[in-house]
Write a structure and sequence with these properties.
Elements (H helix, E strand, L loop, with lengths): L8 H14 L3 H32 L1 H6 L2
Protein name: Ribbon-helix-helix protein, CopG family
């Protein structure tokens, strides 16, 4: 899927400099950033789901410990 991404001038310049330093394209850096974000938020969602399940499982004990 194609899409447009509008960056501020300072973001564009910083991205361009980073791409030149790393010897990769700006596009490659942005794809890596998206992949990193998706992986991180997927992990956070799993942790939230597990915490919710454990809280429900141990609700009675947790209430008695208050």
């Amino acid at each position: 899927m194609a899409m447009n991404l509008r960056l501020r001038d300072d973001q564009t310049e910083a991205l361009k400099l980073r791409a030149e330093e790393e010897g990769v394209s700006m596009h490659a850096i942005l794809l890596r950033a998206v992949d990193d974000y998706l992986a991180r938020t997927a992990h956070e969602a799993l942790v939230r789901k597990a915490a919710k399940a454990q809280t429900a499982k141990w609700a009675e004990l947790l209430e008695r410990l208050k």
